[in-house]
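In the previous chapter we treated chains in isolation. Here, by contrast, the input contains two separate entities that must be folded as one system, with a combined length of 633 residues.
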Amino acid sequence: MASREKELSGVPQSSDPPHGQLWELAERLIYPFRHGEPPEPRPATGFYTDTTVCIGCKACEVACKQWNQLPSDGFNWSGNSYDNTAELSATSWRHVKFIEQFGEESSSNLAFSVMAPNEPVLNRWLMMSDHCKHCLAAPCHQACPTGAIIQNEFENVYIQADICNGCSCCVAACPFGVISRSEMGGHSHKCTLCYDRQRDGLEPACAKACPTKSIHFGPVDELREQARKRVEELHQRGVPQAYLYGDVASETYSELHSFYLLVDRPSVYGLPDEPFNPWLHMMGDYVRSVAGGLAAIAALLIVVFLLKS
Amino acid sequence: MRGNSTAEHLSTEPPLPGGATQSGYANTPVTKAPSWHGIIAWDALLNGMAMGLFIVAAVSELAAPAIFRRVAKIAYPVALVLLLVDLALLVLDLGDSLRFHHMLRIFKPNSPMSVGTWCLTIFSLPLTAAAALSLLAEIGIDFEWVRILAVVVGLLPGFGAAAYKGVLLSTNAQPGWKDARWLGGYLTNSAILMGCAELLLLSALMGQSRATAILRAAFLVLLVLNVIPLGLLFRNLQPTHARLYTREQQWRVGVLIFAAGTLIPLGLMLLNGGPLFICGAVIFLLVESWGVRFVYVKIPHTSPLEIRSGEIAIDDHAHNGKPS
């Protein structure tokens, strides 16, 4: 993997003349403390992924890798249908999931079972293109101690790769298992929602490449409206299981700027059934932590005052 | 997530056929474990030892200066050494260690890691001053009021540096950690207990009989007190333990932790107050403290099948006389 990246990392990346080691050290120390002016806020953008029309072609995965110059992860069968990506990682920001739901007796006459009009949902193949959820109140964003993770002007969760120091707090905080730390640079990486393309007025590479329009990109409000209409349409067409995952906030989690139309339980797709923002517990945990320490100090003081005279 | 029709959907059975074996990704873990391994268990131990030693020495010295001043002056440099080793481990655990100073770009009260980093950074200044002035006092250069000022100034950030660690581990999405509501309470309480044990050992080795007698009594009280947050933590993690370990394993580990961390040190202290017994009690306590931290840091990396299958194999062997 990544022999090309290794090769590139050895090549000087700047055309500036060399300045000497002391200057470089000073630059390295000062650089992260320079804060630029944040850009003007723009309408919030995101993804709406309609899993009912996904055909598992993996064009989104390929487009993502290609545009973001992500290295190959090799080609390994995961043992789970046609899923050879296995999970989202620092080098795979899109992951097409395959879920085979077939009865044992019907596996031999697969085509007929799928097509049979009386039992459309009993034998089926679910597919879903997974990616970062760009949560409105993202735990990774809250956890990041360096400020490397920001919400950019499009309200997308973005990791500034030049600031991240690989502490992994974001990895631990994400309830969707999206972020991971690269073994190569030691920094965290994930979907940027093609920030560079968005700034140039282009749609993200995955949405552009999707041949079935399973991946929709646009202003979040418009996407929600579009998605709700689609759910209603599916209900009318005899798919009562269709629902949206993450389009609105729950008691324990904010809305997602990348939400999904699903037809089975979230856990079947590898999503938490009821995601929980760990920060809801933080104040209570601090209180217990301080109380534990203060109780011990109080006990120590009592013993010292009782026995010192 | 209960948006739109989700709530209705969750109440219905999935449309799986009777003989279906595939349930998609339902049995695969959703979260990713961070690359925090043994090094973080050592960090949690050294953090507790350094902060605990400083806090106990400072509180004791401020409460009874005549009794604790001499031992406290040795405790501060020891706490500084422990802190430096701890900081080195924290830096080494980063994916890009040369960017450790990026932690100081901003202060984020919402991020326990940011709070901890700032507490550690601020605390290191008065601790260094207190340690240096304590050593200078030993060679006759005495700035007593400055030293006392440094000790007082160090108390609050020192306490913060002890208190953040458990919150850092419990405020995330990892299985086990996310349910450990009392992890912070236990770790902070345990830090003070370890600090008391270290100061007791130092005073015993230095022949400070009055300080030793008081700290010995305090150590006994704190040993018993520490059982409360540890018990609450165990209760928090009952579902996780049940998933990872069999009932027998849970009992065995529980008894081992209680014996090594409480009963044996308690027995040794009640038996004899000599340096050898104190040393034994402190060693038992530190080993138990490291064990608890190691087990909890490892939880998200632990595979239930790995542990439980091992146990089943052993049990089968014991019951049937042959391995399964």
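Residues 1-5, 107-117 of chain A have pLDDT under 50 and may be disordered. Chain A has ten helices and ten strands. Compare these points with the single-chain example from earlier in the chapter.
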